[in-house]
Design brief:
Helix content is about 45%, strand content about 15%. It is an alpha/beta fold. Helix 6 packs across helix 7. The radius of gyration is 17 Å and the shape is globular. The protein starts with a helix and ends in a 7-residue tail after the last helix.
Amino acid sequence: MIDIDELKNRNSEINKNVSFALKKSGRDADSVKIIAVSKTHPTEYVVNAIKAGITVFGENYAQELRDKHQDLENLGVAQPEWHFIGHLQNNKVKYIAPFVDYIHSVDSLKLADEINKQAQKNNRKIKIMLQLNTSGELSKSGCEPDEALQIATEIIKLENIDLQGLMTIGSFTDDENQQRKEFTILRNSLIEINEKLILNLKELSMGMSHDYMTAIEEGATMVRIGTAFFGNRIYNV
């Protein structure tokens, strides 16, 4: 179990790194949201992280997110801001639609339609990101970059979801040139969508524990950090 003091230290270190990358890029100090990715870790980790001052969490599995949300309700702990960042099946949207703040991993109009439907049922408007596969890896979810404009055109017609920007999961590589190439594809796709559809989408969700500083230099507004907060993933919990 990671204690509160250790989480405070890790949070402070990550925030220092983010501030350094922002300063290096000439960006405003508060222009990046740090998402602590608590997937596969027990609810106790989330509770300790909240006590350590962390307020935004990301989860990859719909039922796990639903259960942690309920656990916090049962414990009387105020809910943090919840981001769903993993591959989402249509039949799992109902588990998180009542409370989730952002869904980053919308990779098709079909999924967007289901989120819109479930948001309407819950009298909500859910913020979403369109996920692009910028690496070309078959194992990665996300629409192709050349499909993004067409999908975004249809998504913005849906009344109960609010398109905020784009998301990608970069290659797990130490090759900084490859990282920058993929982040640039996402940034340029956002520029194209804004220009063609006369929008002002702001969010670029890109960068994880191994590459978040590079992602910030390339324009990330949200970074999803798991290992640097919580250590290696825990499975079968």
